[in-house]
Specification:
Ubiquitin-like (UB roll); homodimer; seven-stranded mixed sheet; 11 helices; L-amino peptidase D-ALA esterase/amidase; alpha/beta; 2 domains
Chain lengths: ~400, ~400
Amino acid sequence: MPVNYTTPAADQLFSVAGVRLGVAEAEIRKKNRRDLTLVALDPGCTVAGVFTQNRFCAAPVQLCRKHLAGDREIRALVINTGIANAGTGELGRQAAQATCEAVGGLLGVTAEQVLPFSTGVILELLPVERLQAGLPAAGADLKADNWHAAAHAIMTTDTIAKAASRRLTVNGRSITITGVSKGAGMIKPNMATMLGFLATDAGIAQPLLDTLVKDAADASFNCITVDGDTSTNDSFVMIASGQSGACFASESDAGWHEVRAAIIAVAVELAQAIVRDGEGATKFITVAVEGGKSVEECRKVGYAIGHSPLVKTAFFASDPNLGRILAAIGYAGIGDLDVDGVRVWLDAVLVAENGGRAAAYREEDGARVMAQAEITVRVVLGRGEAAARVYTCDFSYDYVKINADYRS
Amino acid sequence: MPVNYTTPAADQLFSVAGVRLGVAEAEIRKKNRRDLTLVALDPGCTVAGVFTQNRFCAAPVQLCRKHLAGDREIRALVINTGIANAGTGELGRQAAQATCEAVGGLLGVTAEQVLPFSTGVILELLPVERLQAGLPAAGADLKADNWHAAAHAIMTTDTIAKAASRRLTVNGRSITITGVSKGAGMIKPNMATMLGFLATDAGIAQPLLDTLVKDAADASFNCITVDGDTSTNDSFVMIASGQSGACFASESDAGWHEVRAAIIAVAVELAQAIVRDGEGATKFITVAVEGGKSVEECRKVGYAIGHSPLVKTAFFASDPNLGRILAAIGYAGIGDLDVDGVRVWLDAVLVAENGGRAAAYREEDGARVMAQAEITVRVVLGRGEAAARVYTCDFSYDYVKINADYRS
């Protein structure tokens, strides 16, 4: 059960003019399951993405990077679940290429105008014939109001489909932003997430979009961790169709600040949904680190806490075993940290200061916060002005069960 | 149940002339449990240690560092379990100091000649009066053939006592090496382990011992991980009494190479015992990384594999889900790694090469190795001559159970 998250209803996911989606059952790995998603883009869209830093990055990620760096307009995305097409060497690259060619043939564009995405089991070959055989059905299903189906069709170990949508009016024009994401395990994105797709009918010039996708990833998918494992397939792609008529070419354009903030808010919502549905998660934890000398050291502390199996099992047990949090702060890698200057709160309860337990801290106050489904751990390092946030979940029996059983 | 490990019998743990040990029940945290160990050293011993790099290092660790850096001969060690005396600020330092003074009073030495060690729950104050009250019983119990009792008295969440002992003849003299260790969770030592104590009746000059303790820690306790959490209290101490009559002052001394190798072998045995008894462990895994440009990058890869919850749950399930191992290699942090040059074996089975699954690999071969209780994952990076090893265990329901229940 995800922590405080439900998928928005289909009619709450607003269509984005210029973007149509279709899904199909291609039997990539299992029968009777929507596992193929096609996204067709009208001419005139700008597209930007960020991808995994894993050196064993998947074949489709390699092609995405190449096609985005090329000079042809991107006109389609194709996403399969079941098989990640990662750790598949030259055969995997051929399979991803063949996938792009098939999509190009179906839609009347070139293979270079297609971005391919795969997610699922690593080290197994993509059954490209089955994928190709499923494409016509996905093509026939293409429609603008199909985000809800797409959110479901990109799921793997997710227990719930993840999507977010909002509308705002800027410069007198209505702008829509809608996105979907997937992921529940192997989650510690490094410059991107498992899979996240966000589209807007605002027009955003390519250089502005390139910057925005990085900023949005840093504020959202790059702040989450379930198990500290960076996937081979992490991808986050942003599409701007321009069909709202509201177009932006520079950060100084009127209304840009609002549009940017709304897009980042949707990205944060999609990223948090992944943590809320983290494998075995029973709690959603925000680690807010402040008072650091740099964002980098704040992130180190946030991830040390967010990755610690001891901290995560203590949250699962609702046990205010705060020494485990202090230990994680201590080994986060800040060599000159003065621990006597560190303060730690659980929500509003001050639990540690002056190198030890806060004088006024009472165990029952900590226990009360730990029993909640949503908890903020606030760490003030007391050595600067920088801050960072990490979103994570607890570590339960079910995480072990899910990952010991997956594949079998 | 530990993986292929049983505590040596009391008569297999050879006494080390010059070293006497005594244990007692001091009710530090629980009744009816040996939780206090005293080690008395004859005059003439050299002593060296390495300690946690955690910035929230415990009060006793701070005192150990200070006393070892002083000019007084170390004459005693005192170890309590139950309370770690970490995250306890100034009151914790006073408690550790009072402990040393009490031991000094009992044995007729100064507080500066005593090394204190604590292990157990973090962020709670050490009940120093109960510890002091237990000291006379520990003093009355002091004897040379008491290593077996000491191995038991330093346990916390350990399910089995850990000790190792061996004798060798060098330059016509019999030399004895005996050690004990403890630890099962919060195990990813950084320059030391939870607690490890090793004594020899060889004489080893202080500069040589200072180097040896670091080398031995790097080859043993610094190669293990259970959960990636570096404890606040990690300490590894080596004692050389000289009472065998075989003394060493320089690396070029005859026989030193053999003594050094035997001491390191005992340290490795003690460190591996901690992993074999890792919380919830059902398998013992050696990650051997070769062909790196530096030891540092080999260690990064070894720890990425050894820490990955996905890899560790796959081992628990005996599932050759090898993509998880490749993913961990890929995110270990070697920015210019050419994955096409990486080869991976499970024991003697080649599972991956050329960026993907090895052509001759059959799933049943992988499954056969994964079903074993002891497994070696061998990774050849193909870019240099450096190598490193990491010892780890799998990740089971019981890890979650133990750590969700601990304290309660």
